[in-house]
Design goal:
alpha/beta; Rossmann fold; two-stranded antiparallel sheet; disordered C terminus; AB_hydrolase_fold
């Protein structure tokens, strides 16, 4: 097993508008960016699978007017250490417990997209006492990213097919790298309804589809995909148990989702039924939960509409705010 550090593949990276920093967490070196007044409340941003910290770059600007914002590269993504065989919710969560201790150094709000949202949930349940103030779960795939979920569709009936393709054609640590072959395979392997749904989840302006891998994919270890598609990433962290142990207030945003009426295949983070079950479990744990439905929103609100994303968090986190109700 050979770990890859940022200097193992320095030609992958491009400059960004926020200065990047590195902290040694023991097993890995974690890359991150920070913005905002050091005296402002802390907010930790956790990217999705195949996303580096700079996916939050535009959202960090309005958020930094209200928070001391920390955005990280998780292990296996961006400039943080790539760790073959070591991609699980528990290891991701433990990394961030250390990061909060060493870098944030105080209680923090956490917000994560997609797989990052499940890691945010892990922190809301299992971080050290007092570390987490509240959690924003941005279009997170609860139950739907597990191989054997307690309710609803599994990863095999949803995004697992995409993750399998990434790993098959790109390989662990980009050992294959057949991007063109993967593009050719997509219409043969993916159901038409899934391809159409993915276009709505990940909207791209006309004419901007790159000929080769986009920058975020270059900075992503496709072994992540294998870990989630095989179930090894979530095997030791049952979602129902995790959510049942949440200890802080929660905001859930739920974006585009569709279920094929013929196959039951989900395109999206989770179904409405799974989202309802998540809310029930948080409430049963004794914590307030706010649910906001954005059925026309792409998967990553913080990229599609960074201003709305920032305003949503700011309003929810405001000390004097009224309780945010459900519009879904």
């Amino acid at each position: 097993m050979t770990y890859l550090e940022a200097d193992s593949h320095p030609d992958l990276f491009v400059p960004h508008s926020f200065e990047e920093h590195v902290v040694d967490l023991g097993e890995i070196r974690m890359n991150y960016a920070v913005a905002g007044d050091p005296e402002s409340p802390a907010l930790l941003l956790i990217p999705s699978q195949s996303e580096s910290w700079w996916g939050y770059e535009q959202a960090m600007k309005p958020l930094a007017e209200h928070f001391r914002v920390f955005a990280v590269d998780l292990r296996g993504q961006g400039r943080s250490t790539w760790t073959p065989g070591r991609y699980t919710l528990d290891t991701f969560g433990a990394d961030l417990v250390r990061f909060i201790d060493l870098v944030v150094e105080r209680p923090t709000l956490v917000s994560g997209l997609s797989s990052g949202g499940t890691i945010a949930a892990w922190l809301c349940a299992f971080a050290k006492p007092g570390q987490i103030l509240g959690g924003v779960w941005e279009d997170a795939p609860f139950f739907a990213s597990e191989a054997n979920p307690a309710c609803g569709q599994s990863v095999h009936q949803g995004m697992g097919l995409t993750f399998e393709l990434w790993n098959k054609y790109l390989g662990d640590q980009w050992s294959i790298g057949d991007w063109a072959g993967m593009q050719q395979a997509l219409p043969r392997v993916m159901p038409r309804s899934t391809l159409q749904g993915l276009a709505r989840m990940f909207p791209m302006p006309p004419g901007e589809r790159p000929a080769g891998p986009p920058q975020n994919m270059k900075e992503y270890d496709p072994e992540w995909g294998r870990a989630f598609a095989s179930g090894s990433a979530t095997a030791s962290c049952d979602h129902e148990n995790m959510i049942s142990n949440v200890k802080v207030p929660i905001l859930i945003t739920h974006h585009f989702r569709q279920v094929d009426e013929h196959t039951g295949r989900l395109t999206g983070a989770m179904t409405d039924f799974q989202a309802q079950r998540v809310q029930e479990l948080v409430q049963k744990a004794g914590q307030p939960v706010s649910y906001l439905s954005f059925p026309d929103m792409g998967h990553a609100m913080h990229r599609s509409d960074p201003r709305l994303f920032a305003e949503t968090i700011i309003e929810w986190a405001a000390p004097s705010r009224p309780s945010v109700g459900s519009d879904g």
